[in-house]
């Protein structure tokens, strides 16, 4: 059984994702071992939540095979494709949500997509969103990152036809500390077409967006 | 000390509220005793959360001194003033929020205010809110009732100058069951000028609105 | 401004959804008014969470324009299209999750999609899922409904290439009462490509699935 | 549509608030960019939750245009008005609540209001509150900051005619850690006329107080 | 070991409590068996949370040995002592808290104490409490029952020297539903000398009050 | 009124507590001001949660009037009485609960009571508790500190006649992190006579114990 | 792959459990279909949480193949083995926990084990537990059911060598309503050797006990 | 009584566990005292959650009697047995769960068991688990450690006959932060035979596994 299952699994992986490693909570030794193993197997690797502090403690050999971006806190061991696909866009409610937007953008680039970021269009000043609406409507899939009360998700989904992948962010204090108020807003939205990923999960939103884009390639 | 404190207290009450009774959780005998006591003291009385079922079990004498409204689930023992003041308006996100809006309106009428209800302007269809905006901007104080994800509070407060009293309603299911998602949204809003009362507390929102209107009479 | 906004809004609605009404928490009079208004405007209408008990209390006129399904607790005022599109499938973990699956299927049919239900493939008996895998892999978008611990979401997303829309259901007791354990599992999944809607939100999952299918029509 | 909406939005802003920036969670580079942009546009700017540690890491140019107060953790880029309006007062339950009171007072001063602080009048020693009552009754709007069990909100609102804006503070430990016990008390109060803002939200309380004071200027 | 432990246990029980039975969640057959067993052993028995509905389904034999009070929902199988001790008093914030006060009073009477109830002295109208203060100060131990935001506990403990046993009640809605807001207030109080029992636990408060009164008899 | 209320308040304070200051969350300047004020008024002062780190940052003048104990994290500005009363005892479940026990003991000493600590008698090894039982039974009031699952409260209260003041401690991890599991156990106990204070509130437990001891002096 | 996986799965099932159906939340039609399918396949079937009310609505044919027990709310379609194995015992803290104990006992009997129930040995009266200890020590695996504060789990595990499977029950009110206090106690216990199943999960505890007994048969 | 109880307790301990000390939250002085006491009594001692930072602050004498392992954060004062028993295995979902697995393995070794670790077999890539299944099926008791959504518990228990002791780990972020999502999954599993210990409680899982292995030695 195992051999057959293995074959089947390989088939699944062809339409799936390269290896990605969530670095938060892993030791330096664990991260080094994962990078070395991937390098030996010549498999592209994406690392997320890799802080500068942890990166600087990795061995020079491991550092040398990784390209790290500070604004997205990601690193990858492969050269991104020279031509990137379009169709996915990222929208953020506030300045503080941008690290999550960059994590999503870095994941998308790693997978071959260039995703513009339309930043700081939270709905307390509705004008900011309305003035960028035509631009947002060009996207076939929209990732929206918002903390605080997360009202952006409902308003945005009511204004565009594309599916909205809501990423609640852990921006806020009091009742919105840790992102649970924004998460509840995203799940409880009365606007049809909003789907939700975990708090601060820019990587997961990007992965879902790519799976959606691939729908059209499904035979 | 007690006599002096009593005098002081009476002075406070002059600028305060007539007696109001939250009937949910009180027995028929308790409600009857309260109504009879107020009637004897010739004090106007407002009863909230008085269901038809409980009302029908009150004694005929008590029923006869009360005028009950089914849509607001309130009753009062006094004839409302013939001329009502304006300045306060009520906005609701959905059809299901109207009972709470009616509780607020009945409280306001009992206290001498006529408050129009602008219903069903939730932000998933932003057009509904924008088309009623001029009307809403006439109000000096706005009570907003919304359940589900409560995105109305932030959007509304960003569009009008008046203070917004948010009443989260217990409309919803899953993460929004019991109104906690809407409550979190109201408290976590990034729009300045939103203040919040307890879930489903139409009475409290009306009392706060009146206290705000009285600011201008403060000497 | 309003006229222009209105035009823009109409454009948005063309690519959007017909009216849908969540009946739970609405009074008989409110539901009747909504149906009559939609009938007069000749707009198709979908009603969800419409129990037999509430339906039976609607006026004969309103009942006569509605076709109600007991297993999905939905009703609609329009004849479903004679030809239905394929591409969306529904997977459930247990027998108790089927009402939510039927709500999703009824919404999809109302919108022009025929969605097969692959029922009772929860992962405690992994064989049940594996034996239906080829069938599930034909779907371009998969809606997965699961209660209890919601382990199905992670396992399923690891085995197929299509995006998985997780609908946690309120099936369970103790820590899983009300669906919060399944919701947490869906959001916390380590499998990329899972997106989540509110607990028991079969309608929302269907709406999101349609938005995803329309990605390919985006110009 | 956009041009018209923009005009409308400008009209809204005239009666609204200057830009305010919540610095917690923003990077030094983000704060610098916001200050520089506001300086170029000659717009007054209020920064809240700006710690000394972060302030000291801002560029000398940016530091030079900001006046920072340590007790309120705020900074502003504009000279406060020479004549300040009265009418708003701030009351605190304990010594530990004063930072929040100062944040509110700094926001009010930035907006043109001088707000006295009546500190340390928590109700466990009722005498402290009663002895300051005449002073508190002069205010037309009262902001009350309290942590722990937040009993001050109910007692205060029962003693004065002005609206009470409750700011629960994150002062406490055990069940009152993070301010949730005080928040619940504020929302659950049986005293009519209490409205609530998010935990530690001194800025929001000040903004709401100003909106209330403006009611009397509403035409 | 067992024999010795048994002797020791008997000694403990002499200073302890007669048997008490919490009837909620027990079947009619279980309650009947407990009453019959106690009757045979000639042990006095107190039953709490015994609704009229359940009582009416007990066998006539069992009913005949029980004296049930509707307002306290308790029943006992023994004649209360003819002379009752004083020293314990009960204070309630609102009318709705009286059932819990009666449960405490019935427990105290069963144990030989007459406890007056000072009802409806919630702090939103501080005058009500102040006017009864001399009466309350006569008690050596005070049981205080309050729901909603539970501000009574702090204010009361600040005004009297006796220990205050706080019984949060499940009176309230929204954030105070089920008594958790009042429970948090009781635990988080800044007034020294407040101790707390479970929500609605009038029996437990009475038991603790008696244990406190017995301190003075301790040799 | 104020003068009379003031007199009444002084009377209350005679039977009440000296000033106590919870230092956590207060600035060095605030603590210094409080100590200086008390010193000038020649009032004894107890400071709790005063870490060595904060103490070392106080001015030499303030440090010189305080006697600080590291194990209890308390300090006081008065010489403790030379003769201390007995009657109160402290019991702890584990080694980690001792800091809370010392806070209670220091408070008691400040108020004139010597309270022995019976440490490390948690019920997982029941023998440890049983072997100290005779000693514990000498106390007229027992303070019990326990974290983790807090089973000690129920077992202890079943074995002794004295009232048990449960202090849940924030010792534990996973579900018992922050003391909420122990708090729930204390409140939900099926043993009559247990009363509860906030998590880690050794001071409050001591204050309540003293109020109980004073019952016997009540005239 | 599927055929091989199927074979492997069959092997797993040989050492596993017959089909069990959790009836709560399933419709009458669903339960009937499951019973009929099992009957046709001649597979033994256990139904749990089958109330008398639901049972009475099943078709006479389905009723006729089921033997239902009211005290355990279970039914089975097979004759229990004539000889039952011993080694597993069930201990309960209170009378109210017995329905869960009976569910466990019925499951065990269905699987071939006779499990005695040692009832009502909660630790508030430690004597009750100590006097039954010799009996309990005969069991090789102990299932313990307790609600309220769940102190039984820790005390019991400290007194016996066998593994303790804790079943928190939903018996209680206030903080212990729904069994979460007992669940926390079970998980947070400081006694080694306690393992936990979901609240009220008598079936799961029985299944785990059997898996433990089978350890000794493992080759 | 005490002497007899003591004897009985010694008998219990023979089948029980050596002393284990949870070091987190204990001071250096407390840990030193415990080690010295055990050394004097010549009792083997296991210390868990002993960080390198705390270990380095212990006195040289105490350090010298302890063998500490960094990967398990444990130390012991005794030489492990030269021959170790088999039968228990440990399975982890991800790399980040290994510290907990090592804590369990170190505890088992201290008690005489050698437990292999099958790491990184989380179900998002089902192949990883299936390919190790034969190995896992050799274990008579399986400890499974998983964070995030904890889907491993259900899938694993459905594939093997041995009891599964689930250790939810505090690996994750957003809704899975602190391990509560994994804990809920473990408790809510629909796979029979899963039992659960506290979050990150590798020690407790090991203790339970040993108690299960001893079932076969029970006379």
UniProtKB/TrEMBL annotation, chains A, B, C, D, E, F, G, H:
Going by the UniProt record, its keywords in alphabetical order are:
Membrane, Transmembrane, Transmembrane helix
Q: Which Gene3D superfamilies does the UniProt record give?
A: 3.40.50.1970
Q: What is this protein called?
A: 1-(5-phosphoribosyl)-5-amino-4-imidazole-carboxyl ate carboxylase
Give the domain of life.
Bacteria
The transmembrane segments are 110-130, 142-166, 186-210
Q: Which Pfam families match?
A: AIRC
Residue ranges of domain PurE in the record: 86-216
Q: Does the keyword Iron apply?
A: no
Q: Which gene encodes it?
A: larB
Where does this protein have coiled-coil stretches? none
């Amino acid at each position: 059984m195992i051999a057959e299952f293995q074959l089947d699994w390989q088939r699944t992986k062809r339409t799936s994702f390269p290896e990605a490693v969530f670095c938060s909570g892993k030791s330096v030794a664990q991260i080094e071992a994962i990078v070395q193993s991937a390098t030996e197997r010549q498999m592209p690797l994406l690392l997320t939540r890799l802080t500068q502090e942890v990166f600087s403690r990795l061995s020079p050999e491991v550092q040398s095979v990784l390209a790290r971006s500070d604004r997205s806190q990601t690193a990858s061991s492969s050269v991104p494709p020279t031509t990137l696909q379009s169709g996915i866009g990222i929208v953020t409610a506030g300045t503080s949500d941008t690290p999550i937007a960059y994590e999503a953008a870095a994941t998308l680039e790693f997978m071959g997509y260039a995703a513009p970021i339309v930043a700081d269009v939270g709905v307390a000043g509705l004008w900011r969103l309305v003035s960028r609406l035509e631009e947002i409507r060009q996207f076939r899939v929209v990732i929206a990152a918002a903390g605080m009360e997360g009202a952006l998700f409902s308003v945005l989904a009511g204004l565009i036809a594309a599916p909205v992948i809501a990423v609640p962010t852990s921006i806020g204090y009091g009742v919105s500390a840790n992102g649970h108020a924004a998460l509840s807003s995203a799940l409880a939205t009365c606007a049809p077409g909003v789907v939700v990923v975990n708090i601060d999960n820019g990587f997961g939103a990007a992965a879902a967006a790519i799976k959606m884009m691939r729908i059209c390639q499904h035979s």
